[in-house]
Every structure is written in structure tokens, then in C-alpha cells.
């Protein structure tokens, strides 16, 4: 069990977060099996070369995210996946680069298909004048970058474009998803961007429909952008 973990340097800031990340990635990757017990405090302190205080803070953090459950006289158990808080930005960051990231990105695309078209429709109906101005400026940047494509610059502005749509829905329940998108969009685009392309025409259709206040067109344009064949994700 101890071989799953690497030592954490005591010079790192927020030491308990570093410890939590190591344990979380063991859980998220499946190395620490759901329903299993993690090693006791003494073993983990020795493994990470940290104090009990730092370890306990790490475990509290993981418990708050639904990854662990601690009971006296029982120990600390890895929770089943349905308890994990997948909308926690920190948890999503910890998932980046794991071997099962292809599955994660496929699932994320599925969630986008279910939610994002309606967000675009709501933005077409509810975006404020200031939000439309900001969306217009963002799309102009997208057009400029698309002419001389640079993936890193494109990811930043594309991420902001989609996040702004969620912020423009007028529905507060869409706001957390906009934040989730900002957290994992970079990883998703790196894995899914087909031939490093920008899909500028598809984004233009979404932008034009929102600016025109046409909810139906905005919804359909978003669905077209999110079609599976436009993304190079492995099956």
C-alpha cells in the first residue's frame, strides 16, 4: 500500500493540500479501491514524512470532497464514486493527467451536450447589454487568433467565450458549471481539439445567434459544435 505514495517535501507551501492531492489521485485513478481502507495515521505520516496535524488537515479536505469517510474504531474508508464532488474545481485539477482521463473527457463532453445548448439559448434571451459587448469583444479575439492559429491563445479565449455564455444565462444554477468549465477546459481541449483546429465557423454561429437574441438558433448551433465527430476523443 505504501508504494502508491511518494514522499512530500516539507518545504512545500500548504503541505496538507499536497498530501491531499497525492491521496486523491490514488483514489481517482483507482489505485485506492472504493470501499477499501486507507493506511492508518502513523503509516501515512511515515510515508509522507509529515506531522499528524498536516495529515489530519489533508484527510479533512478529502472528506469534505466526498472522497473519504472517517469513523472512530473503524478507520478511514474510500467512498464510492457517487459521493465524490465532481463539481469541485480542486478535485477536477487533481484528475488532470490520470490514465483514465480519456473516459473523463468523454463524460465531460456528454455533460456539455446536455447542458451547454440550453445555456446558449438562455444567453440569447437573457444576456445583458454589457455581457453582449463582452461576448462581442471575445469573439473578435477568437477570429484574430483563428487566422494565425496558436493553440495556447485559442484555449484561453475559447474558455472565456464559453464561460461568459454560462454567466449570461440569467440562471444562477448555471454559474457553477461555468466555473467547472474554466477549471478543466484546457485539459479537455488538449485531448479533444481535432487537428488543433479552432472551429471558428461553429463558434461564429453561436455568437451570431446570441447577439441576435435567437434562442432556437443558439441552441442548435451549440449542438452542432458539440457533435462527437468534431472532437478527437478515443472511444
UniProtKB/TrEMBL annotation:
<dbReference type="InterPro" id="IPR036388">
    <property type="entry name" value="WH-like_DNA-bd_sf"/>
</dbReference>
<dbReference type="InterPro" id="IPR036390">
    <property type="entry name" value="WH_DNA-bd_sf"/>
</dbReference>
<dbReference type="InterPro" id="IPR000524">
    <property type="entry name" value="Tscrpt_reg_HTH_GntR"/>
</dbReference>
<protein>
    <submittedName>
        <fullName>GntR family transcriptional regulator</fullName>
    </submittedName>
</protein>
<feature type="domain" description="HTH gntR-type">
    <location>
        <begin position="13"/>
        <end position="81"/>
    </location>
</feature>
<dbReference type="InterPro" id="IPR008920">
    <property type="entry name" value="TF_FadR/GntR_C"/>
</dbReference>
<dbReference type="InterPro" id="IPR011711">
    <property type="entry name" value="GntR_C"/>
</dbReference>
<keyword id="KW-0805">Transcription regulation</keyword>
<keyword id="KW-0804">Transcription</keyword>
<keyword id="KW-0238">DNA-binding</keyword>
<dbReference type="Pfam" id="PF07729">
    <property type="entry name" value="FCD"/>
</dbReference>
<dbReference type="Pfam" id="PF00392">
    <property type="entry name" value="GntR"/>
</dbReference>
Amino acid at each position: 500500500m505504501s508504494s502508491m505514495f511518494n514522499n512530500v517535501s516539507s518545504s512545500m507551501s500548504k503541505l496538507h493540500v499536497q498530501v491531499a492531492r497525492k491521496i486523491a489521485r490514488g483514489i481517482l485513478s483507482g489505485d485506492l479501491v472504493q470501499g477499501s481502507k486507507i493506511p492508518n495515521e502513523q503509516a501515512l505520516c511515515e510515508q509522507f514524512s509529515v506531522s499528524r496535524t498536516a495529515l489530519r488537515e489533508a484527510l479533512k479536505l478529502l472528506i469534505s470532497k466526498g472522497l473519504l469517510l472517517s469513523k472512530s474504531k473503524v478507520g478511514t474508508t474510500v467512498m464510492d464514486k457517487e459521493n465524490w464532488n465532481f463539481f469541485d474545481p480542486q478535485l477536477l485539477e487533481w484528475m488532470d493527467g490520470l490514465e483514465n482521463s480519456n473516459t473523463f473527457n468523454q463524460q465531460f463532453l456528454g455533460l456539455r451536450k446536455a447542458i451547454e445548448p440550453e445555456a446558449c439559448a438562455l444567453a440569447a434571451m437573457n444576456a445583458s447589454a454589457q455581457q453582449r459587448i463582452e461576448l462581442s469583444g471575445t469573439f473578435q479575439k477568437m477570429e484574430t487568433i483563428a487566422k494565425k492559429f496558436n493553440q495556447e491563445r485559442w484555449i484561453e479565449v475559447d474558455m472565456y467565450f464559453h464561460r461568459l455564455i454560462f454567466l449570461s444565462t440569467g440562471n444562477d444554477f448555471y454559474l457553477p458549471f461555468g466555473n467547472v468549465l474554466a477549471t478543466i477546459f484546457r485539459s479537455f481541449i488538449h485531448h479533444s481539439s481535432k487537428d488543433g483546429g479552432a472551429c471558428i465557423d461553429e463558434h461564429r454561429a453561436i455568437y451570431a445567434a446570441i447577439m441576435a437574441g435567437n434562442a432556437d438558433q443558439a441552441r442548435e448551433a451549440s449542438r452542432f459544435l458539440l457533435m462527437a465527430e468534431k472532437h478527437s476523443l478515443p472511444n
